[in-house]
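Consider the tokenized backbone below.
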């Protein structure tokens, strides 16, 4: 092993100093250290040996020409942003022993088209796949319990299914303009779906909406959550009378939204709820919270 190519200490690969396009990390390395390959533009393919058990934060971050990487089943931990900004990476298989997909691990991997999330994973942290604008589908395993904020932000899924194991979903975990269908396993005790809306059952909060969403008028929704319809390609929305609150950024960047009907039952509308909805008219009643919000924010209002 050339010290000029690999800086290694106590089995940890601290820094790669080579210029190779296709590299095989030497056997005996147990850990790929933080920033070990960061900004190595020459690398196109990497094979990691079975001696490696851990990949450090930012280990391959911004390797913009990296297309393929083989991660052995020996790896049990992949740290924050390990592959963030690897814009040429097309597919990757996460080892079965990994339990947490850490913060921004695969963020902005713009050509990533396929990802296999193993049944060992219980948590997907903030921005893990955020900005993966060609990741067209994902299958969430039955082991998954937590999906954090922006975990799949702007991923162009046309559908998402929430398994029964999921206990916590951040309000902005899945926002995207291309989503059509939202379903939840019937045995999930925390969430349910109706009319292509993802609803937190106990709090009656609509967590996620999409192009085909119709907000239920059966009393199951009291709150339109933060970023619930963010960037959704929708033209009109009717808010049912069961709703009392529209949280901040609920319809942020809904550039096609032309009309929304908001009843007088809504007594709170959060900051930036309709930011960048430039062709919007709010239909509401005189003296309502919605009328006041529209007037204060320069939004056209239609009183009924």
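A designed sequence for it:
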């Amino acid at each position: 092993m050339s010290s000029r190519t690999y800086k290694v200490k106590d089995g940890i690969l601290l820094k790669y100093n080579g210029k190779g396009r296709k590299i095989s990390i030497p056997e005996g390395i147990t850990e790929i250290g933080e920033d070990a390959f960061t900004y190595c533009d020459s690398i196109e393919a990497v094979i990691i040996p079975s001696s490696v058990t851990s990949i450090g934060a930012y280990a391959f971050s911004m390797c913009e020409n990296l297309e393929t990487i083989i991660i052995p089943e020996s790896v049990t931990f992949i740290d924050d942003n390990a592959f963030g900004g690897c814009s040429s990476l097309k597919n990757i298989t996460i080892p079965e022993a990994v339990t947490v997909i850490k913060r921004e691990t695969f963020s902005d991997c713009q050509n990533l088209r396929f990802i296999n999330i193993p049944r060992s994973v219980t948590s997907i942290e903030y921005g893990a796949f955020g900005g993966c604008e060609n990741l067209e589908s994902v299958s969430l395993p039955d082991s998954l319990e937590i999906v954090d904020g922006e975990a799949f932000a702007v991923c162009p899924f046309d559908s998402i299914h929430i398994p029964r194991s999921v206990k916590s979903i951040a309000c902005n975990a899945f926002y995207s303009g291309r989503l059509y269908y939202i379903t939840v396993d019937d045995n999930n005790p925390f969430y349910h779906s109706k009319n292509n809306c993802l609803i937190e059952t106990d709090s009656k909060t609509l967590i996620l909406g999409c192009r085909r969403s119709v907000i239920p008028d059966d009393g199951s929704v009291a709150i339109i959550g933060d970023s619930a319809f963010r960037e959704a390609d929708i033209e009109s929305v009717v808010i049912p009378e069961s709703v009392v609150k529209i949280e901040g950024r609920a319809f942020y960047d809904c550039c096609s939204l032309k009309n929304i009907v908001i009843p007088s039952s809504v007594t709170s509308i959060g900051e930036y709820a309709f930011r960048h909805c430039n062709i919007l008219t709010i239909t509401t009643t005189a003296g309502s919270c919605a009328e006041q919000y529209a007037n204060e924010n320069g939004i056209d209002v239609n009183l009924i």
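DSSP finds one helix and 26 strands in the chain.
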